[in-house]
Structure formats: structure tokens, C-alpha cells
Amino acid sequence: MALESILSQWPPKLSDIQINELTLLATSYAFANGLLYLPPAERQPSIPESAIHAPLALFPSPFPRNLFEQAKRLQHIYNVLYARIAQDEEFLDRIMGTENGVGKVDEFIGQLWTGWKQLRDEGLVQVVHTFRCSAWRAQCVRSATPRVQITRKVRLGSVLPFILQALLITLESSYGIHAIRQTFDELSKSATVDPTTRVLRISCSPDIHPEGFVEISTVYFRAGYAPTEYLTPQHYQTRFLLERSKAINCPSIALQLAGGKKIQQVLTQPGVLESFLSDGQRWGTGVYDAQALDELRSSFMGMWSLDVGADLLTPDHDALTSGKEGFGVSKARELAHSLVLKPQREGGGNNVYKESIPPFLDSLPPEERQAWIAMELIVPPNGTGNYLVRAGGASQTPFRVDVVSELGIFGWALFGDKDGGVREKEAGWLVRTKGKDSDEGGVATGFSVLDSVLLVDE
């Protein structure tokens, strides 16, 4: 059946009895499989006392099979691309540093880059291990080390302890990997790095381990992606301490900087993708042809930095020094109804959309334009609906609404050895769905719901 026909008839029409029965089945499945939240509260208890199911869609969302397969295929090249960006110190210094890059005008990025630069000056280089994932699904690589400890930097008061705990149990039972969850505050007291061996140790009660400490092989960050998660200067120092160790940091600071929105914008410029993916002299046999790069570029949306001139490439220094409105800002103002403005942040709630753009530009200091990019909005197909179910409110009755869905592909990469190779793999997918009138996204932030796909041949 053609996609247009599916969309016009989706979701299927149901009676109230059918909707109620399907809701019971879906929410029961969520409870039985750990898709759970802590109920909303000003302060979460130290030991969970109750749970609510995650927000979800009753029906899978129609999705073109060819685009689904293309997204999975592109994940491999994205893995390699970002692994190489994270290892290009000169590129990251130029784009994200405090001298001429984003870190000059974005205090948070500047703090991270400055700490990373100091570590490099001391001769400390991370061997980077990254697996892209969400709180809902993760892939981990088993280490050859017989006894492995992983510490997870977690958000204080996280509403997702059940999903995290399910992952920790899987690591322990299936791979023999023990994990410890600690916040920056806790790590500031418990973490030490041997100055000679760079071994990372976490102190603990002898009741937990007879030696009074455990050695850590991997640090996986569930927090640390926004300035609001570094509440004191000591939190930054704790992050740098972890980076100083020989434990694999996921992500390393270099990889976190590589994931910045400014990097995405620079990758759209002529020749940049080629330098990371097609330069045989630089990368040896691990290069991609023009067809592969064209397919990768087809997944990009148009974007530019707010500080650029008419070529959409170089900064408009005259406008910046005079305080006048440059070409990048004028273009964003003109096309505001079809744009989103993005800072160097992760998670929902940071972007500026459509009609909110002009007044935001009026208030944005000229020196901060460099830290923001304008991106064309993705225009979703019309006519797709679904029933969305949320918990924690006055009613759990599903509500039908026109929706837009976002497909995310997971992948992991292990890199940093002297040979320059990248071991990587595509590792699953996630669909998040939200009401079409909602600009922001994200399940944990409350904008979207968990969904699945109904693959359709066009």
C-alpha cells in the first residue's frame, strides 16, 4: 500500500472499548518491561516508592522502508566522521576554542575546551570510546579485562532510575561488568587518579569491596551536557579529573565538543566532509567516494551561523564590530517562519522557533551570534495521526492528535589507537513522536512519546 494511502487512513478507527483495551495492553507492557518514570515531585526519595509508565504511542508510525534502511546505512559513516573529528585537535581548537571559536562567546563551551587544552598541554590524551545511545536503549562493548568496573555520572534526581538499573543489571548478568552510579558531588569526594599510572579509583566502604576502592575502566556520562549540570567550579574540576585518567570517557571532552551544533554547521561547508572522509593521504584506505558523501549530504538541512556574511561562510566582522545587523541575522529574520535557532546545547528546551526568532534576535548581543546557528526546519508529511498516552496527570485517556515522528539510529565507535582505525557498528534505533504543533522534542523532557515503526514500501 502506498505511503500516501497509509497516512490518510492512520491511525485505524477504534471504538472506545477497543481504545481502552489497547491502552491497558500497552501500559501493562511498559510496566512489565521497565519503561518507567518516577512520578513528578519536587524532590525524589532516595529509595523509589512508586512508578508511572513512560509516555507512549498506541500505534506504530508509518515510515518509508527505503529511508529507514538509508538511515541505518548512513550511521556507519557518521560513526567514522565523528570519530575523526574528535581526534582533530586543530579543527576543534579553531571551531570550538576560546581564541577564535565558539568558546570565546559561550562560557560553558569555553570551560570545557580550556580544561581539555590544559590536559593536552600536560600530555594527557584520551583513547576515546563512544556509544551513541539514549536512556531507553544502549549498546555496550565487553572489555577483555577480566574484572571491569564502570562508573556512570548521573543526574541528581533523575526520573529514569528504573531504565538505568535495568541496563546495569544486564551489564552484570550478561557480561560480568559491575557499574557504579555517582553524581559529580559524590565523585568529587570518592574519585582519585594515580599520578603515575593514571588509574582511576573510586573509594567505597570495605563492606562493598574489601580493598576500600574499585578501579574504573569506563566512565559513561548520563549528565554533564549543559551548564546547569555543573553547579559549582568543583564539578568542572571533577570532569577534568575523570578525563585525566586512563579510563575510557564516554564521551571524552573532545567528542562532546565534536557533537556541537557549530560543528554540524561547519560540516555543510564545501570541502569539509572531504577532508574527514575522502583524503586518502590522511586516512589511508578508510575513505569514501563522492557517491557516499552525496548520500550523507542528503541527510543535512540547510544551516548557517548568525555571524556570517553574504557568502554564508566567513564571519561578517564589520557588522560584529559596529553592532549592526549582519547578513546571517537578516537572513534568519527574513526566513524565521521556516527556521529554528540552535545554541551549543543538548536536550530539549534550548532552541528558538519560528515567530519567536525575531524578538530573540532583537535581544541577542552581537558578540554572541557566533554561538548560534540557523537551521531550516524539516517539513513533515501531512495527515499522520496517533493516539498518545501519558501518565502522571489527571487522566490517562489516550488523545488523538496529528503527529510528527523522529527516527534516531544508534551506533558505537571505538577509536584512538595509533593506527587511526575506527571500530564501529550500527546498533539499533529509536522513534520519538510528538504532536505536530510542538516545536521541541525529547521523551525525558516531556515533549515526545516512545513509538515504533510500521515500514511501508513506497
TrEMBL record:
<dbReference type="InterPro" id="IPR014709">
    <property type="entry name" value="Glutathione_synthase_C_euk"/>
</dbReference>
<keyword id="KW-0067">ATP-binding</keyword>
<dbReference type="InterPro" id="IPR014042">
    <property type="entry name" value="Glutathione_synthase_a-hlx"/>
</dbReference>
<dbReference type="InterPro" id="IPR004887">
    <property type="entry name" value="GSH_synth_subst-bd"/>
</dbReference>
<feature type="binding site">
    <location>
        <position position="353"/>
    </location>
    <ligand>
        <name>ATP</name>
    </ligand>
</feature>
<feature type="binding site">
    <location>
        <begin position="375"/>
        <end position="378"/>
    </location>
    <ligand>
        <name>ATP</name>
    </ligand>
</feature>
<feature type="binding site">
    <location>
        <position position="440"/>
    </location>
    <ligand>
        <name>ATP</name>
    </ligand>
</feature>
<dbReference type="Pfam" id="PF03917">
    <property type="entry name" value="GSH_synth_ATP"/>
</dbReference>
<feature type="binding site">
    <location>
        <position position="261"/>
    </location>
    <ligand>
        <name>ATP</name>
    </ligand>
</feature>
<feature type="binding site">
    <location>
        <begin position="342"/>
        <end position="351"/>
    </location>
    <ligand>
        <name>ATP</name>
    </ligand>
</feature>
<protein>
    <recommendedName>
        <fullName>Glutathione synthetase</fullName>
        <ecNumber>6.3.2.3</ecNumber>
    </recommendedName>
</protein>
<comment type="pathway">
    <text>Sulfur metabolism; glutathione biosynthesis; glutathione from L-cysteine and L-glutamate: step 2/2.</text>
</comment>
<keyword id="KW-0547">Nucleotide-binding</keyword>
<dbReference type="InterPro" id="IPR037013">
    <property type="entry name" value="GSH-S_sub-bd_sf"/>
</dbReference>
<dbReference type="GO" id="GO:0043295">
    <property type="term" value="F:glutathione binding"/>
</dbReference>
<feature type="domain" description="Glutathione synthase substrate-binding">
    <location>
        <begin position="169"/>
        <end position="258"/>
    </location>
</feature>
<dbReference type="InterPro" id="IPR005615">
    <property type="entry name" value="Glutathione_synthase"/>
</dbReference>
<feature type="binding site">
    <location>
        <position position="432"/>
    </location>
    <ligand>
        <name>substrate</name>
    </ligand>
</feature>
<keyword id="KW-0436">Ligase</keyword>
<feature type="binding site">
    <location>
        <position position="434"/>
    </location>
    <ligand>
        <name>ATP</name>
    </ligand>
</feature>
<feature type="binding site">
    <location>
        <position position="346"/>
    </location>
    <ligand>
        <name>Mg(2+)</name>
    </ligand>
</feature>
<dbReference type="GO" id="GO:0005524">
    <property type="term" value="F:ATP binding"/>
</dbReference>
<keyword id="KW-0479">Metal-binding</keyword>
<feature type="binding site">
    <location>
        <position position="406"/>
    </location>
    <ligand>
        <name>ATP</name>
    </ligand>
</feature>
<comment type="similarity">
    <text>Belongs to the eukaryotic GSH synthase family.</text>
</comment>
<keyword id="KW-0460">Magnesium</keyword>
<keyword id="KW-0317">Glutathione biosynthesis</keyword>
<dbReference type="GO" id="GO:0005829">
    <property type="term" value="C:cytosol"/>
</dbReference>
<dbReference type="Pfam" id="PF03199">
    <property type="entry name" value="GSH_synthase"/>
</dbReference>
<dbReference type="GO" id="GO:0000287">
    <property type="term" value="F:magnesium ion binding"/>
</dbReference>
<dbReference type="GO" id="GO:0004363">
    <property type="term" value="F:glutathione synthase activity"/>
</dbReference>
